[in-house]
Write a structure and sequence with these properties.
Elements lengths: L2 H12 L6 E4 L6 H13 E2 L4 E2 L17 E2 L1 H10 L4 H8 E5 L6 E5 L11 E2 L2 E2 L7 H5 L2 E7 L12 E6 L11 E2 H7 L6 H24 L3 H17 L7 H31 L1
Helix pairs in contact: 3-4, 7-9, 8-9
The structure holds iron/sulfur cluster (2 copies).
């Protein structure tokens, strides 16, 4: 397993639906979280730190990756580039699973062929260029979001975005540039505000599903709710309109659905108690 795989496995093990890590500095009850914070702090980079990296185009880090996790903005940008709807794009290039911790749908790029390579890898090069999903564009960096409270609670505190080196050794000592310049070259700084927004949204949706699962084990109802989450957060966009406005509208509608479902559950339980 190479360094990129190690990083992605770790991302997957933490908060599957944010593309990157989501952690709490005060979650001291979990040793694994404390370990992750220590590892992040050790490799943490500031915007002015120099990054030396070059790619030899061996293509290895784009094969056998089962956790190239996409956020809705990644999907929107890629769908728009191919003149597809986000749903059409997902049908062709992605699969969805339910995150073991978050309990919400996670969308990832589907590997193909005997070599299990990314469908966008041609002649060992990424054909998406500047449209790469954030998780790939960041490489060899990783990005984490730190909440200064209990990660299981929804918070209004502003989280801190942290960038760190993945530890990858590919082509080091060439093409030195600052971290900020690297991030800017892929538009990652522009999209940082969406990364923060997305982690907050997914925490809220995750809290809703996890609380629902505590009182209900009807798989069919859960499947309907997961389908609704996929539709509202990932699929229901017009690629010719502004993404951000549509995202907020879709999320508001999803919140209204969640409130209604919670109301029905409350009424059902109150009826059971009488
Ligand atoms: S970053 Fe480049 S050199 Fe490193 S594994 Fe990926 S394709 Fe190969
Ligand atoms: S999107 Fe590009 S960089 Fe990412 S895995 Fe696919 S080919 Fe590699």
């Amino acid at each position: 397993m190479n360094d990129k795989e190690l990083v992605k496995k770790e991302e997957n093990a933490s908060e599957e639906n944010t593309s990157e890590k989501s952690i709490s500095k005060e979650d001291s009850s979990k040793k694994v979280t404390a370990w992750k914070i220590a590892a992040l702090e050790k490799n943490r980079l500031s915007m002015d730190d120099m990054l030396s990296f070059s790619c030899d185009n061996c293509g290895e880090c784009c094969k056998h990756q089962n956790d190239l996790i996409m956020n809705p903005y990644d999907i929107f940008r890629l769908a728009k580039r191919l003149d597809l709807t986000p749903k059409e794009w997902m049908d062709l290039y992605a699969d969805v699973y339910i995150g073991s911790e978050s309990r919400v749908p996670v969308v990832r790029i589907k590997m193909i062929g005997d070599e299990m390579h990314c469908p966008f890898l041609k002649n060992n090069r990424c054909t998406l260029h500047r449209f790469k999903p954030d998780v790939c564009a960041l490489y060899p960096l990783g990005r984490a979001i730190c909440y200064h409270d209990d990660p299981k609670e929804i918070t209004t505190n502003e989280p801190e975005v942290v960038y760190f080196h993945s530890g990858c050794k590919c082509g080091t000592e060439q093409n030195g540039q600052t971290v900020k310049k690297w991030l800017d070259s892929f538009g990652l700084m522009e999209r940082e505000h969406f990364f923060i927004r997305w982690t907050k949204v997914i925490r809220e949706v995750s809290a809703f599903v996890r609380s629902l699962e505590k009182t209900m084990d009807d798989e069919e109802i859960l499947k309907t709710i997961w389908g609704l989450i996929i539709l509202q957060l990932y699929a229901d966009y017009d690629i010719h309109k502004d993404f951000g406005l549509q995202f907020e509208k879709n999320f508001k509608e999803l919140q209204e659905h969640m409130e209604k479902i919670q109301g029905i559950r409350r009424a059902y339980h109150e009826g059971e108690l009488q």
